[in-house]
What does this fold into?
Amino acid sequence: MADSAQKTELTQETTQAHVGHGQDAHVEINPMEISGQMVIWTWVLFAITLGALYKVAWKPILSALDKREEEIQKSIDNAEVLRQEMAELEAVKAKQLAESDEKSKKILEKARQGAHEQAHLIEEKARDEAAILTENAHREIETSQALAEDALRIKSAAWARKLAGKLIDENLDDEKNRALTDKLIAEL
Amino acid sequence: MHETADRAHYVNQWVMHHVTDSGEWHTPLWSLHLPDWVSNNGVMLIITSFFMIIGFGSFFRYQKGKAPRGWTNALEALAKFVRDDICIQYLGKKDGRKMAPLFLTFFFFILTANLMGLCPLFSTSTGNINVTFGLASITFFFMVFGALYVNGPVKFFKSFAPSGVPWPILILIMPLEMIGLVIKCAALTIRLFANMLAGHIVVFSLVGLLVSFGYAALPALAMALAINLMEVFIAFLQAYVFTLLSAMFIGQMYHPAH
It folds into this structure.
């Protein structure tokens, strides 16, 4: 019994000396103790902090964030507008390229057709010229032939005269004369 | 044997003393008897508030046309995270933007109070159930009066009745939904309080092992240090969880169809 009392005393002394900083060791320490005063302190201090920080920090921070977001959004929108403009320009460029391609094809086709026509004309002209030349050549040949025939006729006549002269000189009979004449004509 | 029991009792008293609110502020440097109208955790809340207002006011330096740097950049990144990923996510664009200051204050207020508890000389005010109840009751206020203001009384009460449920079941469900409103806030209160209190109890208990077992318990000190580092992460996590759940609960009341 005495031991127990001594122990309790020792515990109380130790606790009072080292733990409680003068606090009574018998006082029940309850971390779940309800204190209306503390709740009110929390509300008041939270409200003061909220009000002060709204003015000092949250308002400038949030408006800076909003401003930056707006700027970023603006940049994104601008980029989108530029992208659309670029797309439109690209479409116009593609259209113009297609048109110029079409045009160049048409020009080429036209040039090809022109060249064909030109070639055809040149060919026809050449053919006509060739025909004229051939005709001229024919005409020349005919003329030359006629001239040659005339010359031959003249020569033949001369030879005939010469032949006749010879025939007369030789004075041959009819049979012999005919054979000679045939031979001479054959030679001609 | 008795001596060990005494030491254990002493450690228990010491741990509980350090994690419970009192009318005194003891540090190795000073010992203050606080007036009746404010307790140790109340002082911690005042300091939290003071740190935040002074700190945020001096950290934030917005220069027009220039990219933010240093603390301003970090603060903006966190503010953007809270606004976009918590407020707008659960409250919609309009209400989320409007209520962002409240949730930013929730997040940073709890975070600062949590971190302060890890620093020497200070104690954890968020390990006090009255503080966490005070914060959760703000969420409750917006869940009830905010929703009444936004939706009107008819829509507010309709939000307790899920669509497509037959009326006999509604008689059961509606009171449950109303009780759920209070339970959600109670869960907010207990979650933050229990997490912060438990973390500190563990750290102090590990340090207390040194008192009970002497140098044999020296490895416990390394463990206490490791847990203290983890407490830094938990400080952020609990601030995030409280803010997120508050936004979620308020969002559910503001937009009951979602």
Q: What stands out?
A: The two ends of chain B are 62 Å apart (CA to CA).
